[in-house]
Every structure is written in structure tokens, then in C-alpha cells.
TrEMBL record:
Its EC number is 1.8.-.-. Belongs to the HdrA family. Pathway: Cofactor metabolism; coenzyme M-coenzyme B heterodisulfide reduction; coenzyme B and coenzyme M from coenzyme M-coenzyme B heterodisulfide: step 1/1. One of its GO terms (molecular function) is oxidoreductase activity. Its cofactor is [4Fe-4S] cluster; FAD. Keywords: 4Fe-4S, FAD, Flavoprotein, Iron, Iron-sulfur, Metal-binding, Oxidoreductase. This is CoB--CoM heterodisulfide reductase iron-sulfur subunit A. It comes from the Archaea. Signal peptide: none annotated. Part of a complex that catalyzes the reversible reduction of CoM-S-S-CoB to the thiol-coenzymes H-S-CoM (coenzyme M) and H-S-CoB (coenzyme B). It comes from Candidatus Methanoperedens nitratireducens. The ferredoxin:CoB-CoM heterodisulfide reductase is composed of three subunits; HdrA, HdrB and HdrC.
Length: 695
């Protein structure tokens, strides 16, 4: 038996100041990221400049552009970052590259030719293909046994095993089997439909079969992987899953996608640095953009800043960006305006802009929300508003544009953040504080600067800012939220968590580092049916996989409208949102889903439940005039927009009248599959042109 070795760690308990020794079975080290040797070699061979740390060098205003024109960077090659920032930056780099290639867009596209669909005979001729997936399935499930069982099921005309059903050779085999055995429905028992269903659907279509006459039984994730130690029972479960797929597929009918024309124009809401960047990227890709800004001037919060952490002047950055936006023929700027009405769907939105007391129509295919955020006013915290010595970092920013006479400056971090009222980290606060502390020390080295912090979060390459501040003599003192600093007449008292002592700091200027808070997002939330999080910021579709998308197709997100961000992060995300918008605008048409929900108008009672539950804003109610004998009246009926519907089935599940059917996942299809697993399939009969499955 292997000997278990205990690991002993010694560490300091900050609460007591004692050195503690404790044993652990496992120790996990959180390590940093160093530039890869391959990055150094690539930079050398391509002439790309590196920063002092060995990362590919960029600038705040151009976070994905390298020193060589036409070469862009994204991810940790540019500096340490988490998945959401990496994914957003990747889309940003794609946006820049696409703009360069835009004159050639579409020149290499060839329309795929498919054979005519074979006429669907009513009687099911089902083909079943069971995959070994190497040893992923085959080492647990007795695949030949499952194939022999499938051959006994009613309606199955052909069954065979495959080593890798997803291989190109297997695709040819499936197509040949469809033709040779006159198959009109196909079941593949293999892995997840999330990645492989489109492949097999396409194979069916190439064989002249409608792609929606296909069903996938996931006997890998749902069977072999979770029952690897119960081979016999796993095999029986796999048989049951195939049986369910056969019963369900017998009821399938052909479904078709629809082509819908789209408007190759965009709207960007918000004229800050994120909004302007998004508009400029879309315009540089060749599409018209309407940029809507509620203030008199473009620029947003960048107008309130005096200096960036790399020493650049925001006014210079703004001047260049506004010049590019104003001079771009594809961008129409409307100041002192807001979007007040939106109708439509992906690729076909119709909106109304209120500007100068007039309502202006605007049609667009995609929208980018870049409405920014607001500085928190910390009223009632640390004597703010009562003591003239107490200011915010935003106010200090303006004061440093001139000069300050204070000899003792104390900065308090996390004011109004990481609390019960606002649980989130302000993200930008630590960087702003360190930047301004450096400016103060460089202006007058004799000024004492103290930063009272809970956790210093100068993340990534900005750790160098923290080191610079320390080298200049800025003093960092850790405090705990249970023992907040206290502002007194001429000083601030703080309990130093490292020394476990109360310290009194002479302070003639006290600076509060406050977070950005969400703006008035409710109106836009209601216009586009896009969600807000609990802090009233806009909520993206997925934080890692879709960081700039909304669940509502055709609407994208960037900048501090989503959460507090540094300028370069907002710019990267703006270019990413533009890139995502261009994936829509670059099309000639929008193709709807085939498996969508449909309404039986005769059963619909017009209650609006479907409108309430749909996450994609697909259903709507409209007036219908009904005449019964001599009585005529108007009632409401539901209609589902095929271009917006994703076939999720929420409306079908919620409809109290049973008037909605989720095609390809109807109650009958799902019911027969469940019954088949429980009771088995006895027969598949044809009755008056309809398929009847008996269990």
C-alpha cells in the first residue's frame, strides 16, 4: 500500500501575528504566467516589439495592434489574462484583420450543392449506427450486442457498428447505407449532439435525406463515461437509449430553414471610448453605423480623466479617436439623442431615435450597447460631503490636472465596493489609486502618500505600477472590513492588519476609491429584452464563451455597461462586439432554425404566457377578428417569429392551452421516447397517413 506523506506548511496568521505550522494532504500552488519562449522566437522572426516583461507590446488605445502593421495579438501572448478577456481580445483581433481583408470579403465563397431530397415514404425505414468511439464507448458498452438488439426493433431496416462514426470514411459509409437500404430516418448512437449533430445532419442531407430526420443517442457522456465500472448495465442502458431514439425518430417529419433578408447596417448606443471604437470597427469593415450619444459631445468618462497610467493624456487619445469617427463616411453621429423604440429581430430591427424633440426612424441589422457606467457618489461614507478634505479618485484626477498643496495624502480603497450593497470588486480602483499616487510622488517626492487597502489588485502587467509606487515611497497598509479606517479632524486612524496595530496618519487630503456603478440601463433592457444582473449592469450570454453577446441575437455588449473596466479592456471588448456584429452584417440573408415552435391558432387563448417566458423575444400577440354565427369580436392570438425562435420549447412547456408545438421535440415524440425506455417498442404502424408507435 502506498505511503501517504503529509505536507507541513508554515505561515503567518495575520489576525494574531503568530507563526502557524499545519499539515496538509495536498498543497495547490497558484502560479503566475511567464511569456513563452515560442513567443520570444516569433517576435524576433517577425520583428514585433516586446515589452519589458517579454510580452508582445501594445498600447492602451490599441490593445491588439503590434508594432508591425497587419499583425495583431490576443490572449496571454500580450499579457496575463483570464478566459473572458482572452476570448474578447481574440474577437477584437479578428475585427482588425477583417477590416484589412474587407475588400475581398465573399470572393472565395462557393454555394454548396445538395441533391434533391428523396420523397419521404410514410413507413419508417430507420438506420441505426452504433459507434465504438475508440475505447471511449467500446471499452464499456458491448457495441455488437447493441447493434444486434437494434436490428430487432420495429422500423429498423439497417444497423451496424462503427469504430469512429464521425470520421470521413464513416460518413461515406452512412451515405451509402442510406441509399442502399432506402433509409428515411437515421439514428447514430455515439457522443454529444452539441458537437456532432450538425456533422451527421449534413451527412444525411448529402445523401438526399432531410437533416431533421436524424436523431443522436448520446451513449458516451450519458452512458459509457458515467458507468465505466458497470459494463453489463451500461450495455443495457445503451440499448434503452437506442430504443428511445428509434421510437422518437419514427415520428419525425421533414423541417426546413427559411431565408430572411437582412439590413446591413448597425446601431451603436453610447459615444464613449467603447462606443466610438465599436462604431469605427464596424465602419472600417464596410458597414454603415448610426452612433447615438445622449450627451452633447462624444467621449464619455474619458473626458474626466487627466492622465492614463502609461503617462498619455486622455485628451490626445480622445482627439484622435473622435477625429477618426467624425471623418468616417460610414458613421452617422447623433448627439443629445436616445433610442426610444425598437421592433423586429436579428437582421431586421426597426427603431425610433428621439433627438432635438424629433423622432427619427432607424433600420438596422445589429446593435452594440456601449452605454458605460457612472462614478459612485459615496455620500455618508468616511465623512464625504461633510469634510472638505475628503474627495473621490475622480475628483483627485481633476485636481492633479493643476496641482495640490497637500503634504499628507491618504487613499482608502474599496469604498462602496465589496460590501453588502455592492458585492463586486471595482476592478479599476486599485489601478487608479496607484496611478494617482505615483503622479503625486513624482510631482513632489516629499508628499506622504498612504494607500489603505483590503487587497491590492493591480493585476497582470500592471503589477509594475505597484512596484513603481513602492519604489517612490508610497506606503501600503492593509485593513480588514471588520475594522474600517476612521476619518478624524486632522488624521485617519487605521488598524494595520499586518502589524495588528492601530496607526494614526496625519491627513490633509483623503481620497476615496469608489467603484463604477450601472447607469440608467432599464430603458434599453426593456427595448431589446436583454437581461441585467443584480447590480443593474447588462448580463452577457456566457461569461467565458460569449462575453460580448446577449441571449437576444443581433445585440452585443461592450465596455463598462457590462461591468467596470480599464480603458484597454473596454476598447478590446468594443472591437470584439464589432466583430460579432459584423458576422451578421456580412451575410446576404439570415437563415432561421428549422426546429422551431409553432402555434395552433385554433387552440390559442391569447393569454401571453409564451411572450413572458420566451428568452429570445420570439412570440408576440396580435389582434384577430373572430365571427361566430352573428357575433363578431376581436381577440388576441400568439404568433412566433421564425427568425427569433431557437426552438428551446419554453413556450410549448408553459402554454396552458397546449396550443404550441416545439417541432422536432413535440410532446408526442418525447412521450414515445420515454415510454419506449420504460416499456419497449412493440410495433410501428401506419394509420391514415400517420405513424403510430405502440409501446
Amino acid at each position: 500500500m502506498a505511503q501517504i506523506i503529509s505536507l507541513s506548511l508554515k505561515y503567518e496568521d495575520f489576525n494574531t501575528g503568530d507563526l502557524v505550522s499545519k499539515n496538509f494532504d495536498m498543497v495547490v500552488l497558484s502560479i503566475g504566467l511567464d511569456p513563452a519562449d515560442s513567443t520570444q522566437a516569433l517576435a524576433k522572426s517577425s520583428g514585433i516589439a516586446l515589452d519589458d516583461l517579454g510580452n508582445i507590446a501594445t498600447s492602451i488605445e490599441n490593445p491588439v495592434e503590434t508594432s508591425v502593421a497587419g499583425i495583431y495579438v490576443c490572449g496571454v501572448a500580450q499579457g496575463p489574462k483570464d478566459i473572458p478577456d482572452t476570448v474578447a481580445q481574440a474577437s477584437a483581433a479578428a475585427s482588425k484583420a477583417a477590416a484589412l481583408l474587407s475588400p475581398e470579403r465573399g470572393t472565395l465563397i462557393k454555394e454548396r450543392k445538395f441533391p434533391d431530397e428523396k420523397k419521404l415514404s410514410i413507413e419508417p425505414h430507420i438506420g441505426v449506427f452504433v459507434c465504438h468511439c475508440g475505447i471511449n464507448i467500446g471499452s464499456v458498452v458491448n457495441v455488437p450486442n447493441v447493434v444486434e438488439y437494434a436490428k430487432t426493433l420495429p422500423g429498423v431496416a439497417h444497423a451496424q457498428e462503427m469504430l469512429y462514426a464521425c470520421s470521413s470514411d464513416s460518413q461515406v459509409t452512412i451515405k451509402d447505407a442510406i441509399s442502399k437500404n432506402d433509409l428515411n430516418r437515421v439514428v447514430v448512437a455515439s457522443c454529444t449532439p452539441r458537437t456532432h449533430e450538425p456533422l451527421f445532419q449534413n451527412t444525411c442531407r448529402e445523401a438526399g435525406l432531410n437533416p431533421y430526420l436524424f436523431e443522436l443517442a448520446n451513449i458516451r457522456e450519458h452512458c459509457s463515461w458515467v458507468h465505466s465500472k458497470e459494463k453489463e448495465r451500461a450495455t443495457e442502458k445503451a440499448k434503452g437509449m437506442v430504443q428511445m431514439a428509434v421510437a422518437k425518430s419514427a415520428l419525425f417529419q421533414p423541417l426546413y430553414k427559411q431565408k430572411v433578408d437582412l439590413i446591413n447596417k448597425a446601431v451603436v448606443l453610447g459615444g464613449g471610448v467603447a462606443g466610438m471604437t465599436a462604431a469605427l470597427d464596424i465602419a472600417n469593415n464596410g458597414y454603415h453605423v448610426t452612433l447615438i450619444e445622449k450627451e452633447k459631445e462624444l467621449g464619455g468618462m474619458l473626458r474626466e480623466m487627466m492622465e492614463l497610467y502609461d503617462g498619455k493624456k486622455p485628451a490626445d487619445v480622445l482627439k484622435e479617436l473622435i477625429g477618426k469617427v467624425s471623418g468616417n463616411k460610414n458613421i452617422k453621429i447623433i448627439n443629445e439623442a436616445k433610442l426610444i423604440k425598437v421592433e423586429g429581430y436579428l437582421g431586421n430591427f426597426k427603431g425610433t431615435i428621439l433627438a432635438g424633440g424629433k423622432e427619427l426612424p432607424v433600420d438596422f441589422g445589429a446593435a452594440v450597447v456601449a452605454t458605460g457606467a457612472l462614478n459612485l457618489e459615496p455620500s455618508g461614507l468616511f465623512e464625504y460631503g461633510k469634510d472638505s478634505r475628503v474627495v473621490t479618485q475622480a475628483q483627485l484626477e481633476k485636481m492633479l490636472g493643476k496641482s495640490i498643496s497637500a503634504k499628507n495624502v491618504t487613499m482608502i480603497q474599496c469604498v462602496g465596493a465589496r460590501s453588502r450593497e455592492r458585492e463586486y470588486c471595482g476592478r479599476t480602483c486599485c489601478v487608479d489609486a496607484v496611478k494617482n499616487a505615483i503622479r503625486i510622488k513624482k510631482a513632489n517626492s516629499s508628499t506622504n502618500v498612504y494607500v489603505l487597502y483590503r487587497d491590492m489588485r493591480t493585476y497582470g502587467v500592471m503589477e509594475k505600477l505597484y512596484e513603481t509606487a513602492r519604489d517612490l515611497g508610497v506606503v501600503f497598509i492593509k485593513y480588514e472590513p471588520e475594522k474600517l479606517p476612521k476619518v478624524q479632524n486632522e488624521s485617519v486612524i487605521v488598524h494595520d492588519a499586518m502589524l495588528n496595530l492601530d496607526i494614526e496618519l496625519a491627513s490633509d487630503l483623503i481620497v476615496l476609491s469608489t467603484p463604477l456603478v450601472a447607469g440608467e440601463n432599464k430603458e434599453i433592457n426593456e427595448l431589446f429584452k436583454i437581461p441585467l444582473d443584480k447590480n443593474k449592469f447588462f448580463l452577457e450570454a456566457h461569461p467565458k464563451l460569449r462575453p460580448v453577446d446577449f441571449a437576444t441575437d443581433g445585440v452585443f455588449l461592450c465596455g463598462s455597461a457590462q461591468a467596470p473596466k480599464l480603458i484597454e479592456e473596454a476598447i478590446s471588448q468594443a472591437s470584439a462586439a464589432a466583430s460579432r456584429a459584423c458576422t451578421i452584417l456580412s451575410r446576404k440573408f439570415i437563415e432561421t432554425e428549422g426546429a422551431i415552435s409553432v402555434v395552433n391558432e385554433a387552440k390559442c387563448i391569447g393569454c401571453g404566457t409564451c411572450v413572458t417566458v420566451c428568452p429570445y423575444n420570439a412570440p408576440s400577440l396580435y389582434d384577430v377578428t373572430v365571427k361566430v354565427e352573428e357575433v363578431t369580436y376581436t381577440t388576441k392570438k400568439s404568433k412566433i417569429n421564425a427568425a427569433s425562435c431557437k426552438g428551446c420549447g419554453s413556450c410549448a412547456a408553459a402554454c396552458p392551452a397546449g396550443a404550441i408545438t416545439a417541432q422536432h421535440f413535440s410532446s408526442k415524440e418525447i412521450g414515445e421516447a420515454i415510454d419506449a425506455f420504460e416499456k419497449g417498442v412493440k410495433s410501428i404502424l401506419i394509420d391514415k397517413g400517420f405513424v403510430e408507435v405502440t409501446v
